[in-house]
Amino acid sequence: MKEVSMPVQAPGAVVMIRPHRFTPNPDTAADNAFQVPATGDPEELARSAYLEVTRAAEVLESAGVTVHLFDDEDATRPDSVFPNNWFSTHAGGRVALYPMYAASRRTERRPDIVEMLKSQYRVQDVIDYSGLEYDNIFLEGTGAMVLDHLSRIAYTARSRRADPVMLERFCTAFGYEPMAFDAVDPSGTPVYHTNVLMCIASGFVLIGLSMITDPARRAEVAERLAGRRGTRAVLELSPQQIHDFAGNAIELEGHEGRRLLALSTRAAASLTDEQRDVIEQTCTLLPLDVPTIELAGGSVRCMLAGIHLDSRPQVDSASMVAPGAATVR
Known about the structure:
This protein is α/β, with parallel strands linked by helices. It has one domain (13-328): L-arginine/glycine Amidinotransferase, Chain A. Helix content is 26%, strand content 22%. The chain has ten helices and 16 strands. The chain has helices spanning 42-62, 111-120, 141-144, 164-174, 215-226, 239-243, 265-270, 273-279, 291-294, 300-303; strands spanning 13-19, 66-72, 87-90, 94-97, 125-128, 145-148, 153-157, 177-181, 198-200, 204-207, 233-236, 250-253, 259-264, 284-288, 305-306, 325-328. A four-stranded mixed beta sheet has the order 15-1-2-16. The termini are close together. Pfam families: DDAH_eukar.
């Protein structure tokens, strides 16, 4: 594993899950308007998802991102390819484990991944909120929240997957200001996860502002995202671009500190020339081809759990990789 310094907004390492069995989850279809029902041969669907994750990990690693790739052969976990919903990592050596809305997703939490983080990075504290599931309180990680690590704000679209009590509890413990709002798609369906609506990078933001229902809150969100001196460009995405997952992107750090914007090929194709010009002032676009994964209602951002931790000193790599995990090189 390469030495990874503590990043701020753009992590230099990620966790990915490669599914051996994959299908859009019927338990999450009711409130996920981005999800498409599974059709065709289930084995072929699973093979396609497996290859898409493998290729995406290889592209990321060639760009200088450290990828901790874990395999999942459990057929009862259709959404395990989206690990950012059940854990997040934070500067100062902190890890949060989250309560998940769908019961079928709760076994995605894997002790071997947490142990890998402890062994390869400086982890001081693991806060486990998963017990709140028994009280029907849910907050699905950096799917439910989009975190501005620079300004310490947790932007959150209200939904059954983002309980306000849990949001306040997380923000108090981890030092973020909660900024919640209502957001709906053109049909009036509430946005199920904030990270399909917006992406915060160091120098710009991609956001479907028109989908925030309250005009005053919409203006406040735009102002806070831009920063006190307007140092971030706020790029508004159309509802169609949101549907094409242009908001479901993540800024990463690659070779020699180079900033990358990882997003799907579908999302990249939806960007206008003007949006590309602004993005490319600070980031290199890194499209990943994941059409099968996107059938499940999430895209590249959902597939990548960023690691905002300091790495430990180099040791014998053979002794550091947890069972079931492989660091792509």
